[in-house]
């Protein structure tokens, strides 16, 4: 959970920091001088200001009122430039994410996670200085940040597959990823309050605090973490035996795989319908999550016309509720599976449908109904959005841990590659359509989000599963070995009525 918190806080808080850094009024006035991109794409589209938009426009506030509301930024970065900064880490992430799952499975998730968080912390600590110096160098620094961020989820997925039995996968998936929501709820409230301070202009403190938390985590992780339960100093032998009984039969260490000559079934993974289902769901989830984490502060400022502290509350609410709902749903899903009320596959499909279709409906209502005169309704809708989004954890995320426990790191890498496309697409969509920050522009963005969520949900309903795939089951030891003098071989008959001499071996996982 802590590694996800560190990763997300150092990445997503750029959305809050950007709101504090940018002089939005000046940027939107600059956009007024240009031909709207929407007219270039759809010549018949109208971008005229409606009466309700005129009432809600921040342009009606004078400069002193804007500063009073907490928005005292000085950077004159256009919406496109802001979107590039937000997406820069995703570009860096995309460059190396192809290999992070492999590194986790081969070299172990402990060291991979440690290197990743340390690199992110260094980049975050340098961000305020570089941002004030040069926009393009800052863009490059955010890309470097993304390179180090990519191991976060694959390393935690690999750890979860080794440390927790299948009956607890939904619960542990919810707990591990709850760092995301803690960062986006509690962290956002802290960030908006830091923004309002006059010390160092406020916004650099967001980066410094996130970096400090990251460095602290590195020290604790290096001391306590181990790749496998069998190597831990803090588990009893009984606990180690239990985890081996539950997980060891579906897992081989890298040394065992090398000794047996077992190759990673990449072709089977890529062509698997189960893999396609989880990566489709991950794409839509990442698009949705990035849209809200990175741009809800901007939407709340421009469309809902909230001051900075209200903005923090509105931005934090959906993720705080998501934190509660995902853990509750994870526990409930595991209860239903233990009682055999639902099969693992049915459970995953039900909860993923709740996430995909529920979030799509909320986006549609916000696009068609919400404006600055309906802030209470917006707050309620954002609460429901967080509730529905929590279903993705006992849904597609649990499925990704279940279909190939032996290759959980590699599966996580595939889902993150798909998710990286979603992360990159969200800022691109916002950067293209949103120039003046009007309700109409944001409505089009939310319409795209509706489409993506519904497509992802339908694909998972058709192809999704939580069953271990045949290509992910390691072969059982079945070979003749020269025994020592005291060894008495056991003769067993396999399903084809062939006699095999087997020797009991001790596995390390």
UniProtKB/TrEMBL annotation:
Record GO biological process: monoatomic anion transport
Taxonomic lineage of the native organism: Eukaryota, Metazoa, Ecdysozoa, Nematoda, Chromadorea
Organism: Panagrolaimus davidi
Gene3D superfamilies documented for this protein: MFS general substrate transporter like domains
GO MF, one example: transmembrane transporter activity
Highest taxon, organism lineage: Eukaryota
Record-linked InterPro entries: MFS, MFS_dom, MFS_Na/Anion_cotransporter, MFS_trans_sf
Name of the featured protein: Major facilitator superfamily (MFS) profile domain-containing protein
Entry annotated with the keyword Signal: no
Coiled-coil segments: none
